[in-house]
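Reviewer 2 asked us to include a model.

Predict the structure of this chain.
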Amino acid sequence: MGRMDSPAGRRRVLADKLSRSGLKFAIVSNPKHIFYLTGISSNLNPYYVLGKGQRSIAFLAVGDEGQSSLLLGGSEFWSPWAREDVSGPRPDPASMNGVGLSLYSDYGLDTTMVPYGAEIAPEVKFWLRRLARAEGWLSARRVGVEDWHLPGVHREVIQRTVNRGRLVGISQTIMDMRKTKGRDELENLRAAAKALDYAYGFAKAVAEEGRTELDMFRAMNDAAFARFGVFGMIGGDVVSGKRNLEVGGMATRRKFRRGETVIIDMQTTHNNYWSDTARTFVIGRPTRGQQKALETVIEAKDMAARMLKPGTPTADIANEVNSFLKKRGYSEMPHHIGHTVGLDDQERPWLIRGSTDVVRENQAYVIEPGVYEKGTGGVRVEDCYFVTRGGREKVSTFPLGF
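Predicted model (structure tokens):
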């Protein structure tokens, strides 16, 4: 197993980077990055994030020798309302996935229902001082923090704990790590892609005159909920007729009309990892112009996929696709050619002309060429690929035809 193939391996990689940068330890505060480095899903539950907002605040400390400790709200770990004799034994918080775990009360009838930044500052101070004393970090001269994420009130707590230390940003370091995927991440991405493949079959069955964009969106989500559970949510673009000349948009009550195209460009997650694919359907029989547009974007997608080899500049892929489309008589694309996917739906490297990245092994790309013409309507397809040492593997499998 490679070093990036598990949360523990990624923590070791980060620890090595801290050591080489002269950082004694770092505090990770972005919930996605805490998950990335521990496998513990802090504040990523869709029920809370979409319906109730942030419920607790977590921090992960990683030392330059690989030590790690997580401060986490107790309600992230077990129900604050259930008695042990009802819900069963509570999990042992002493350690989880090789990470030391400290819990604080983030729900209490005598304290608070939802802790905000300043309210847990004392908890952060107590946890960090105790940890720093135990690990010998109090005299650290350089300490890493997620400069793109850390609130000022918590930055101040960290600074006071290491009052002679300088706080150094590590957000870019973690984002650079995320550009290539571990084996566990690729398997999550593969499962997310398969979920979209499954849902698209139900979307195509609704591609009929008189049905609506919302009917199609509902059909996909009904199927996903039944198959994958309450968090099997699928979102993205469902645009038909003149609307798809604007590239994307949320589903509306607009009814499908014979002869027009419908673009669906959907995203979903599996274990917090995103997939993103697109298909185009025609209501009724496609015209010659629509068929030509579909064949062109499929050819453009396949050409771009063949360029997904380690070392290829990502800007070259974008430029080649646009050049190909113009040679076929279409306009240059108004949007990106593609991007990578992972903990976010759209991650670096981007497939755009201004990109300075190159393709690397174990990256997960989506490629989404499209043409948007008044005579034919919008036509776009999008597939997901994993970059391998010798080329690429196509992950999404739903048929590309109208």
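The two ends are 41 Å apart (CA to CA). The chain has two domains: 7-178, 183-394. We have added this to the supplementary material.
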